[in-house]
Design brief:
single chain; alpha+beta; two-stranded antiparallel ribbon; 4 strands
């Protein structure tokens, strides 16, 4: 799984990920192209992978904070992207979330977002090259993020 974008906020978070070509579940190898046609099966696989991520994260935080119990109040939502324009909008939406919720007045400086990783030359776990490729380069990425996409507001995930 490749992380393309993220934003961590006090009461929720967003991750934009690309599935790996091959995944392993319960010691079985799957080629994602072989199962992608079965919407229920792919949904189960994605849900299982995210469930593992959330459990691992919760366990780590619980150990760190010497606490027990659930960290999350609601189940996660996932959507399948069907076109490139929707994909680009999700980058924008995720990176602009701190401004939307009044947590920051500048999405470019928000500490807990992948936007800064895109603008940095430092090593990162973000799939920066793929992200820039989606926008036809760094300039396209920046231009798209600097434009408010009101006409796409029907795509918002809330």
């Amino acid at each position: 799984m490749q992380v393309l974008a993220f934003c961590l906020l006090p009461n929720h978070f967003h991750f934009l990920v690309k599935l790996a070509e091959r995944i392993e579940i319960r010691d079985a190898q799957y080629n994602i192209q072989e199962i992608v046609e079965d919407e229920n099966r792919i949904g189960e696989i994605i849900s299982e992978q995210l469930r593992r991520l959330f459990i691992s994260y919760s366990q780590a935080i619980n150990r760190q904070e010497n606490r027990t119990g659930s960290l999350f109040n609601r189940n996660f939502k996932r959507i399948e992207l069907t076109d490139d324009e929707h994909l680009k909008y999700l980058f924008f939406y995720i990176h602009h979330n701190p401004v939307k919720y009044g947590i920051s007045n500048n999405y470019q400086n928000y500490k807990y977002s992948s936007f800064k990783a895109y603008m940095s030359k430092k090593s990162t776990e973000i799939s920066r090259d793929l992200g820039f490729e989606i926008f036809d380069g760094t300039d396209g990425f920046i231009t798209y993020h600097n434009y408010f996409h009101e006409e796409k507001s029907n795509l918002i995930l809330e």
